[in-house]
Amino acid sequence: MDYDKKPLILAVDDEEDNLALLKGRLSRRGYDVLCVQSGAEALKSLDDNPPDLVLLDVMMPGMDGYETCRMIKNQSVNEFLPVILLTAKDDKESKIKGLEIGADDYVTKPFDLDELVARIRAMLRIRSLQQALAITRQEVRRLETELKGAYTFDNIVGVSEAMREIFEKMQGAARITSPVIITGESGTGKELTARGIHYASQLASKPFITVNCASLPSELIESELFGHKKGAFTGAVASSQGLFKAADGGTIFLDEIGELPKEAQAKLLRVLQEGTVRPVGGMEEIKINVRLIAATNVDLEEAVEEGRFREDLYYRISVLQIEMPPLRHRKADLPLLAAHFIKKFNEKFKMDVKGLDDSAMETIVNYDWPGNVREFQNVIERCYVYAGIEWISSKHLSMGKATRKKETSPDTASAMAAPLTEDNFPTLEEAEKAHIEKGMQLADHNKAKAAKLLGIHRSRLYKKLEHYGIGL
Predict the structure, then answer these.
(1) Is the distance from CB of 218 to CB of 174 less than 8 angstroms?
(2) Are 438 and 413 in contact (CB under 8 A)?
(3) Where does residue 36 fall: left (phi above 0), alpha (psi -120 to 50 degrees), or beta otherwise?
(4) Are 20 and 28 in contact (CB under 8 A)?
(5) Domain range holding 94?
(6) Could you identify which of 87, 169, 394, 435 might form a hypothetical disulfide with 359, taking C-beta atoms 3.0 to 4.6 angstroms apart as the criterion?
(7) Would 2 be classed as within a structural domain?
(8) Does a structural domain hold residue 450?
(9) Do 341 and 319 belong to one domain?
């Protein structure tokens, strides 16, 4: 109901004098009143000038008040439109009949004006609450849609700024079919990201084939990827189309692409350039149309510099680049991730865990999550060995070196200056971070000078600074 204007009441009565009386009295009480003399006129008026409430006489020729009320309430748009029946009948059966067909109240003639106004006000308050509830429900649905659309992408959950940027890049990658390289530490969700891009793209109905390059036997890589003819080698008892052909028309996801041997890299480059594959032992080139998404947890630019990865292949597969942030850099997502995994495991284990209590939340925020989202999921799943828990507390969490807190630990460089023991021996990452911090200090925070001092390419230094959160 719009509070900037008077409530509009539709009065329906075949007696003109009754309508004049209603209009005069209710107008003086602050209401706008529209008068009609039949059920048919009332139904037409609902479309032309929707009211906030209907006063409906029961005894009318033709379409009586009961039938008019039924037809009003049968329209979904009028489900919550208040209808007050006005009648001279005061018997219980008439009242029950009116309420059963959808009337909201029943006033007997002759009525007391103060009582009628009080009932009108009550009905309008209820209508106002119903409208507010409807708006709230719409907003909830909008937020749910936004959460599923903008902040989740095929089970990737996040609301942090880092993840919003990832979702934007994924949406952009889904609009085209150029090659994508997804980088990031192990456990950050690279395969989920690849799947999200595929299923949001025009190729969603086509195959999505996953290949772990590190798990392919070196002597069978070419056969696995590009197929082979029967008898092409010992053990080839039947022809195989290969994984690229299996992905024809869709997407092939090459995980851990940095582990491909140089010879396989050269053949992959040819396939990407020519759009054809030649099965092992075959003579003909087979045309394919495949979108490539690759992933790695190694620095391919560094691998190129060191000669371990072909530079031409690197540029071919990295048209679009997405770097997945480690969980320690997106801790704002931890509560949402926890809720996501708890819902998942509640359904899986038929339990009803409510969430994480304050002690558990403090623990997960202070932990650095070296295994990233995969480790976090495993930690939540392990909590389900405790039967009957409603809230996960810190005592239920099991996270390896759970007391290690990067954000609150002493300065790593200072710790390294002390005699090294098992208790203060830094991890490789901690040592590298301290080394880069020292290099930046010596170079007076000049990145070009620091890169030269550290003996690495400037682009690689930028990545390391972002990775460790140095100078940000």
Answers:
(1) no
(2) yes
(3) beta
(4) no
(5) 8-137
(6) 394
(7) no
(8) yes
(9) no
Please report the beta strands in 256-408, taking only residues with DSSP state E, as ranges in sequence order. 276-277, 286-287, 291-296, 320-323, 355-356, 391-392
Q: How many angstroms separate the CA atoms of 4 and 89, rounded?
A: 37
Has residue 321 been placed in a domain?
yes
**How many domains does the structure of the chain reveal?**
4
Pairing of strands 8-12, 32-36: parallel
Give the relative orientation of helices 65-73 and 92-100 as an angle to the nearest 10 degrees: 30
- CATH code at position 290: 3.40.50.300
The enclosing domain of 95 has a CATH number of 3.40.50.2300
CATH of the domain at 460: 1.10.10
Q: Is residue 186 part of a domain?
A: yes
| Last residue of one domain, picked from the residues 325, 353, 385 | 325
Q: pLDDT 10s per residue in the chain (472 long)?
A: 444 578 999 999 999 999 999 999 999 999 999 999 999 999 999 988 899 999 999 999 989 999 999 999 988 788 889 999 998 877 788 788 888 888 999 888 888 888 899 999 999 998 888 888 877 777 666 555 544 544 556 578 888 999 999 999 999 999 999 999 999 999 999 999 999 999 899 998 899 999 999 898 888 899 999 999 999 888 888 999 999 999 999 999 999 999 999 999 999 999 999 999 999 999 889 999 999 999 999 889 989 998 999 999 999 999 999 999 999 999 999 999 999 999 999 999 999 999 999 999 999 999 999 999 999 999 999 999 998 899 999 999 988 654 344 443 444 444 444 555 666 667 777 788 888 888 888 887 777 788 878 877 777 787 788 788 786 5
Calpha distance 152→339 (Å, rounded): 13
